[in-house]
Design brief:
Elements (H helix, E strand, L loop, with lengths): L2 H20 L3 H14 L2 H23 L23 H14 L3 H12 L3 H24 L2
Helix pairs in contact: 1-2, 1-6, 3-4, 3-5, 3-6, 4-5, 4-6
């Protein structure tokens, strides 16, 4: 498969995984995520995480609407309501999404690099948590339409 064909197929898989997660079809979403993981190199998987984060960024922008002024210096931030209660995979997802939404690509790369050094189970959990978080934000954004 050529690079453009692989990119198109991978893009379709990522969007299908996100749509399935938004629709709360966990089995289909899990199968798509497994398919994505089996077809990707590390750098392609980073692209998958960025694609998911881009969808999350769009949802955040929709949620916060015209009062949020990224060009004027507004930034997204994390706020852990009860410190120490968030799992590492969940922290990866939130931190990656916020870094991406704030256009902080070096932090995205550092977070991804750290995630790849974790166990396979933790890495899959981190990417899954990103997918789940973005789906939740997307549902919230859709509810506001």
């Amino acid at each position: 498969m050529s690079s453009p064909e692989k990119f198109a197929a991978l893009t379709e898989l990522v969007m299908d995984a996100l749509a399935s997660t938004i629709a709360k079809d966990a089995d289909r979403a899990a199968n798509k995520l497994i398919e994505i993981g089996s077809q990707c190199t590390d750098s392609e998987m980073y692209g998958v995480c960025c694609a998911l984060a881009a969808a999350g960024q769009q949802a955040l922008t929709k949620i916060y609407g015209p009062d949020f002024n990224r060009a004027g210096g507004d930034m997204f931030a994390l706020h852990e309501l009860k410190p120490g209660t968030t799992e590492p995979e969940e922290m990866f997802a939130m931190r990656f999404l916020v870094a991406y939404a704030n256009d902080d690509k070096p932090t995205c790369m550092a977070l991804y690099s750290a995630a790849t050094k974790a166990s396979d189970e933790d890495f899959v959990g981190s990417v899954s948590a990103l997918l789940i978080n973005v789906a939740g934000l997307s549902r919230l954004a859709l509810d506001r339409t």
